[in-house]
């Protein structure tokens, strides 16, 4: 059974940092593209960052470039999102996603990130 378990969310002041983790199980992690999405109430889920199966290809949404870093540790079946210089507009539920093709697309349960003074 597939599981994606996110952790690391919380409340942080503007300008602060958080590191999200997503531990995967139930599939061959090293074969999957991994992504972080975020969603605020009333809006569509937004792709934040994506990393290829081997880690050689990385993409970010423009609003987080230079502040967020996605990385992965394949032996640990874990993907990370280091978030620095956080802004109130980064407040959202952050979701981990695994993409192995149309029939192999999985989501975690989400972790809340709140940026507020």
Secondary-structure blueprint:
Blueprint lengths: L2 E5 L2 E3 L5 E8 L7 E7 L6 E6 L6 E3 L7 E6 L4 E6 L8 E8 L5 E3 L3 E5 L2
Parallel strand pairs: 2-11
Antiparallel strand pairs: 1-3, 3-8, 4-5, 4-9, 5-6, 7-8, 9-10, 9-11
Describe this structure in words.
By secondary structure, the protein is mainly beta. 0% of the residues lie in helices and 51% in strands. The strands form two sheets. Strands 2, 4, 5, 6, 9, 10 and 11 form a seven-stranded mixed sheet that branches. A four-stranded antiparallel sheet has the order 1-3-8-7, with no helix packed on it. The chain is globular. The mean pLDDT is 97.
What distinguishing features does this structure have?
single chain, 117 residues, mainly beta, 4-stranded antiparallel β-sheet, globular
Taking all residues together, what is the mean pLDDT? 97
Helix content: under 10%
Strand content: over 45%
The oligomeric status of these chains comes to single chain
Report the sheet with the most strands, covering strand number, pairing sense and barrel closure. Answer: 7 strands, mixed
Order of helices and strands: EEEEEEEEEEE
Structural class: mainly beta
Global geometry: globular
Could you list the spans in which at least 5 consecutive residues all have pLDDT below 50?
none
SS field, number of helical segments: 0
Radius of gyration: 13 Å
- Gap between N and C termini, in Å? 40 Å
Strand tally, please?
A: 11
């Amino acid at each position: 059974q597939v599981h994606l378990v996110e952790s690391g969310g919380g409340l942080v002041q503007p300008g602060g940092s958080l590191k999200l983790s997503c531990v995967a199980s139930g599939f061959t992690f090293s074969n999957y593209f991994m992504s972080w999405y975020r969603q605020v109430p009333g809006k569509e889920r937004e792709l934040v960052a994506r990393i290829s199966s081997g880690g050689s290809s990385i993409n970010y949404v423009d609003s987080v470039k230079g502040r967020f870093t996605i990385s992965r540790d394949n032996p640990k079946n874990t993907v990370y999102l280091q978030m620095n210089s956080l802004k109130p507009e980064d407040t959202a539920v952050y979701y981990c996603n695994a993409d192995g093709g149309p029939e192999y697309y999985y989501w975690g349960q989400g972790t809340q990130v709140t940026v507020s003074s």
